Amino acid sequence: MLKAGIDMGSVMVKCVIVNGETIIAKSAARNGPMPEIIADTVLQQALKNAEIDFSLIEKIVCTGYGRYIFTKAHATVTEISAAAKASFLLSGKQRCLVIDIGGQDTKIIEVDHNGEVVDFLMNDKCAAGTGRFLEMMAGVLGTDLHGFGTLSLKAERPVTINATCSVFAESEVISLLAHNEKKDNIAAGLLNAIAGRISTMLNHFQSQIPVFFCGGPAEIPGLKQAIEKISGRNIRIFDNPGFVVAYGAALCVFPQIEPI
Amino acid sequence: MIRISVARRIVQIICFVLLVYGGYIFKDWKESAETSQQKIFPTLKAPEGSVSTTQFEKGSILWPSGATPVIENYPPSLVCRFNPKGGMFKACIMHFLSENLTWQTSFKYLLPYITLFIALCFLLGRVWCGWVCPIGTVGDFLTYLRRKMNIPVRRFPERFRLNLSITGYSLMVIALAISTVIGMPNYARFQCYWFLPYCQICPARLICPMFGLIKPNWKDFSTGITTCFTILAWIVLGLFVAAFYFGRRVWCHMCVVGLINSWFNKGSGIELHKKAIKCIKCGYCADACPMGLTAMYQLNRDAIYNQAGCIMCMRCVEVCPRKGCLNVSFFGKKIGNMQRRTLDAKKVSEPVRRNVA
Amino acid sequence: MQKKFLSQYEEMLLKNLKCSSSDSDNIPDHVLVEYMKKSNLSSMEGFYQEILDFERNGIDNSEKPVGFFCNIVPEEIMLACSLRPVRLCCEDYGCGSKGEEIVPGDICPVIKSICGKFYSNTYDNLEVVVIPGTCDPKAKLAEILSPVKQVYFLDIGRNSEYLGNVDVWEKKYTQFFQFLKETFHCNAGRRQLLSACKLTNARTEIFRSIYQLRAEQPDSINVFDYYIMMYAGFFMKVEKWNALAGKVYRQAKQIHKFVDKPRVLLAGTPVIFPNFKIIDVMEESGLKMAADLQCISFGRFYNPVLIDEETEAGILRALTLKDIAGSMCPCMLNLEKLVNLMIDTVNQYKLDGIIYYNLRLCQVFELQTALIRQILKEKGIPFLSIKTDLGKEDTGQLKTRMEAFREMIESRKV
Ligand code: SF4
Ligand code: SF4
Ligand code: SF4
Ligand code: SF4
Prior knowledge:
The structure holds three protein chains of three kinds. Helices cover 37% and strands 22% of the residues of chain A. Chain A is an alpha/beta fold. In chain A, the strands form two sheets. In chain A, strands 3-2-1-4-5 form a five-stranded mixed β-sheet. In chain A, strands 8-7-6-9-10 form a five-stranded mixed β-sheet, sandwiched between helices. In chain A, helix 3 packs parallel to helix 5. The longest helix of chain A has 20 residues. The C terminus of chain A is likely disordered. Chain B is mainly alpha-helical. Chain B is built from 15 helices and four strands. In chain B, strands 2-1-3-4 form a four-stranded antiparallel β-sheet. Chain C has one domain. In chain C, the strands form two sheets. A four-stranded parallel β-sheet of chain C has the order 2-1-3-4, with helices on both faces. In chain C, helix 9 packs parallel to helix 11. The complex binds iron/sulfur cluster (SF4) (4 copies).
């Protein structure tokens, strides 16, 4: 059975096409002012990659912040359930914690040995500690997300960033730059700040559960290590972390949830 | 269902009438009761040379208003020997113990009485205090008067209540010691003054006859000792009445019979349960308790909780605003919902069907 | 209250405040009408009418109205003095931004809106405002409001446990009674107190019925109607509220609406009209609020005045106990009670989960969240804590959470 999962994040739109439980194609694009059209293009792209026709797709499940926007979807599901579903499968059907850093929010999901969500935590209204925040900071440092990570790996003496609010963090970074602080130290400091927040959230959960990491920012070099260092837990990153949620959505069958 | 405090009032009044006026009411029944009783319970009699209540003349402190009681038995509440016409029951357990210690009655004869007493205690615990005892009823009546006079209640600290019970226990020990001593052949000559020392100062001795429409033995100034006892009895009675100006059931903290009864409160057939998860720590129960007990409120786990001081009035069960938090059971069987009716939300007319997918 | 000290500034304050907030177009009627449309009960009309009247005309002063906050101010005492208690708690976004002219923006949103409302004309008729010292902002509020109104500060401390504090509460209540009697020259006593208690007990009885009905069939009275009723209870006369609520209950009882959606318990910050964001989102996400543990509804109405001693002091004592029982405020020492109530309510009505609602910036609600979460997790009760403020911009995020919560509950049930 062919299914498509679309993750309409605030930054990226991702699409995964699965056959049963195996991924046969994926594609992604940056989200923009016309999310529905973007979603459609991403879906078409994925279909092209998979070399199949749209009519073969039996179910399209939409997730993410903009899940109600895409009208072609047969069902919607929240990122949390989708991430849990996918992580459960990818982690080899075990009890696990999933850190999912998205563009707008960071969540930690606890999945039990049946693959059900038992508990989840989400950061609050504030943007600090999310993908968007990192992107902003990378922008201030004049690089992109990947470059930001690489910078941080070179740091010798990471600075301490105190501000928890993204706006204040930005001004703090700017003032640090003005004081001739090295960029790599600042980058490492920012990553540490975020890792600190995530670790705090992680500490709400029991320590012996294995932790997995998904979401686009998981690919940033150094972030995983920073979290590991602060929280003292082993973290594993899924392959293609950005697509995990879309994959989960494709696997979710919640026929009872109609798009509203 | 009738409210529990109303039910209690009714039971109290009925018991009061039966116990205090029993001597009048069951006058004709006396004969048959006596004969049937003698089959199981041996008649306890004063041995040769010992004093017994019946010897006292009118005007002396221990004058028993003449007649013998209907039933020669000792239930666990202040059922006084000095009730008019002998009353319904023989007397309270304190009377029983003092008398027989003095008489040095052999244990063989006492056994049936003691067994019955303990059985009754185990059956109902201090329900006897909360629901039956005439002196308790008088106390509740005084409290009622206080409330009508708009006088606020004083709540006594734990320490004070503890001291009262210590006083009670001391009185008990002293009274029983005196009774034993005067039972010894060498000291037999003291018997006529020191017989039943506790009865001589017990407020029930004065109160019960008063309600029974006969003149109680107010005073006996014939000798120094009787004068002392007369004055002591007055003081105790005065304190008894005055205490109700301040608090509820003050006397019951030091009542010797109540104290004996309280030993059996734990493990008696009637039990108070608490379901801790339902408790919201509101203190309704602690506040309404006539004995000022806060243990029900403080309890933090599910438990059966019969405290020594509790008189099983079940006021706490009635006022607890959380349904199912406090419960009463009788030999393990839960007695239905005792909560105030007004608190019970109206039943939804049709049971709810819940789909469980 | 340092009235003298403040009175120097009074004129200045008033000039600054009144003119800037004189446009008293408070809540647009259409918000109310929208909720009215969602209602399935014709008998609810009375409540909507009352609220409309109130928002347009303020409180009429035919009976001396006295404003108060929080459950711990005993309404019965005011009723006994034949005053009209008006509860002033308010979570109005419009008023909130007005309030920012007087108080800092990052203070408790309730205080903010109250300040806003006070310096508009809504509460012009109030004779006295009774402010309890439950939390620090309230204490300061007493001073902020004192140039505008006569304020009575009822400080009962932070311990709402019987053994710890009941005597202090009782004493404060007695003083408060004395104050009202002197201020309004009435000689209320035992009889008046008793009849006031009878009134509120009748209210308790109706509320309990409604609460139970909703717990079993949350759609019989929908959640908006429910909170509208609670809000109307802020300023309506008790007799009138009782009569109307009784009607609503009788009508709702006939309807057997039976929903197959997760039923949850809503605890935490009170939901006060017009800030219905959280219940809006809940409804949209397919969660049914079946029961609540909030101060404006459960805390205020659920516990009866049980008079043990019918003396004047005894009645005041009973009022104290009722308010101790009803204090859901996180400012008090009552976590054990709150957690017990949560677990018990969930068990009793077989609810599916608990949503704990924090109105952002009231730190105390937030403070205890982690602790509650831990305990409930051990008990295996699904728990979601929501943190938000008066603004509407996070509706999408809230919805994601609520939906995820619903999916979590549903997947568990299967
Ligand atoms: S006087 Fe007191 S102790 Fe003696 S029999 Fe009567 S109640 Fe018992
Ligand atoms: S404790 Fe009170 S109720 Fe019990 S026997 Fe003594 S006087 Fe009676
Ligand atoms: S604990 Fe309850 S039953 Fe016992 S005396 Fe107190 S109110 Fe009565
Ligand atoms: S009355 Fe009931 S709920 Fe209140 S403290 Fe006592 S046992 Fe707990």
